Amino acid sequence: MTDNSYDSGRLNLPFVGICTFGKYPYVADWDSIDADIAVLGAPYDFGCQFRSGARMGPRAIREASTLFSFGHSGAYDHEDDVTYLPAETTRIVDIGDADIIHTDTENSHSNIEHGVRKILAAGAIPVVMGGDHSINIPCINAFDDQQPIHVVQIDAHLDFVDERHGVRNGHGNPMRRAAEKSYVTGLSQIGIRNVSSTARDGYVDARSMGSDIQSVRQVRKLGIEGMLARIPEGVRYYVTIDIDAFDPSIAPGTGTPSHGGFDYYEVLELLDGLTKRGSVVGVDLVEVAPDYDHSGSTSTLAAQVLMNLVGRILHNKDSA
Asked: Which of 61, 79, 106, 233 is deepest in the core (most CB within 10 A)?
């Protein structure tokens, strides 16, 4: 039987039109968000300690995401026998970027927090594209009037520095700032490896403050199901993904690449399992710095991960 719906309306190929995330509708009025998922850009990278450039991440991820703009058909996965992101029921919007004020961390972070609060007030799930990992700090701050959350971090670096030369809100600090929150019930820090962003005392502090820390090699020994079993079940998850969690062979476009990282399906299976184990209520994906990857594969990977994660959040939420 022929489905003629493919031939109705505009063809709207990936290289046509304006680059919103997944070509979903753009909402400029943050008081008029009516969606299940709202995507926000946070193009801030003043928290970097080495290579900058993640400020261009949201723009690059948006452009890459047009490859996965499924139009009428949704995204059929024959392994799962599921059509994710079906057009008739998918309610996703792109609300643009938080305003960034150059050299001003406090007000830039405040603007990001404001955007996330607007999304939460609308009853939508925030999906935030960084930017460096410090943008997680205002994202987590915005959950202070929500129900408790468990933070799942997929990353090469622990990011648990308390303070360094007076800096408390750089991209080495976000998991420490999260752990301090009364409404953060614990952290699962996954993929941590090699020379890291945090000294030994930071690891001791992280574990004492409720973190479970697993490297890539430890996750592979456990298996994905074994790793999932270590994460509290039936709770609300905030997921933060640093693109350097992936091996630089597939994600070279980042400020602090770290060899020995995950491959695509390891992370996808972990995220898929997470959406079935509890409720994902917030997401950020950070540290995509497209100028270090002229092939565009890092931005494409980021877009693909987010599209697949969002599809599974919505499908498994509706199936629960």
From this structure: 61
Q: Has residue 8 been placed in a domain? A: no
Encoded tokens for 119: 């999304």
Amino acid at 147: Q
* CATH code: domain of residue 226: 3.40.800.10
Check residue 8 and give its pLDDT: 64
| Residue 46, in any domain of the structure | yes
**Which residues contact residue 199 at a Cβ distance below 8 angstroms, ignoring those fewer than 6 apart?**
none
Q: How many C-beta atoms lie closer than 10 Å to residue 240's C-beta? A: 28
Residue closest to 292 by CA, chosen among 243, 225, 238: 243
- What is the tens place of the pLDDT at every residue in 153-196? 999 999 999 999 999 999 999 999 999 999 999 999 999 998 77
pLDDT of residue 7: 58
Beta carbons within 10 angstroms of residue 233's beta carbon: 9
Span 240-289, pLDDT tens digits: 999 999 999 999 999 999 999 999 999 999 999 999 999 999 999 999 99
Angle at 256 between CA 286 and CA 303, to 5 degrees: 35
- Look up residue 44 and give its two tokens: 């801030």
Provide φ and ψ at 126, rounded to 5°: -80, 135
Residue 1 lies in a domain: no
Output the pTM of the full model. Answer: 0.95
